[in-house]
Amino acid sequence: MTTTTEEIIPVNAHLELRATDERYTTELHNLVVKNRAYLQDYLNWPQFVGSEEDTRQNILSNQMLHQRGYAKMFLIFRDNVLAGVLSFNSIEPLNKTGYIGYWLDEAHQGQGIISLALEAFIGYYAGRGEIRRFVIKCRVDNAASNQVALRNGFLLEGCLKEAEFLNGRYDDQNIYARICTS
Ligand SMILES: CC(C)(COP(=O)(O)OP(=O)(O)OC[C@H]1O[C@@H](n2cnc3c(N)ncnc32)[C@H](O)[C@@H]1OP(=O)(O)O)[C@@H](O)C(=O)NCCC(=O)NCCS
């Protein structure tokens, strides 16, 4: 009999990151639906999430990319309650570069959850030697996300002009990076 081990990145006594899995479909779908209106001001994809089946398909495709090393999607749990998502939206394996994305349930903001989770995530992938260049790209107007990058020691490398399409406009994007070699 084969057993599958869940991939978990511990953060602290209350927080952990669990690799996305089909078993979390309902929980994730409900969290997206609950936060859809607020997330839509920051991310383009929530408008396209319709049924729970859409969420299941998204999880399955992310699981495949996760296993192949082209992306990594983790669910953030605080005291066993789903609080948000932290991912490498994409990975360039040759360059050991990971492009980070995140969002939090509105009720879980302002508590340092993403910043703490991000430190553990970076430590995990740098420690394994898989990623050395960690990148955050966020709209110049997204104050909270720019703060996450700065709070976690990322350096602003530049501003990409009209690089992100959101709600009918192409907005400027800041690009931040942090290099971790061990
Ligand atoms: C971006 C986003 C995840 C940031 O959430 P956040 O709660 O501000 O970030 P953190 O979890 O790191 O928490 C930081 C806040 O907790 C506070 N905090 C409390 N304890 C803390 C701790 N131990 N460590 C760090 N910060 C702590 C900080 O002071 C800060 O609050 P402030 O902004 O009022 O000063 C959230 O705003 C979000 O989901 N936005 C919508 C989606 C989005 O924009 N994603 C990014 C696209 S690029």
TrEMBL record:
A single GO cellular-component term on record: ribosome
Top-level lineage group: Bacteria
Name of this protein: 50S ribosomal protein L7/L12-serine acetyltransferase
GO molecular function: acyltransferase activity
EC category: transferase
The enzyme's E.C. designation: 2.3.1.-
Alphabetized UniProt keyword annotations: Acyltransferase, Ribonucleoprotein, Ribosomal protein, Transferase
Pfam family, one: Acetyltransf_3
Residue span, N-acetyltransferase domain: 15-176
Species assigned in the record: Leclercia tamurae
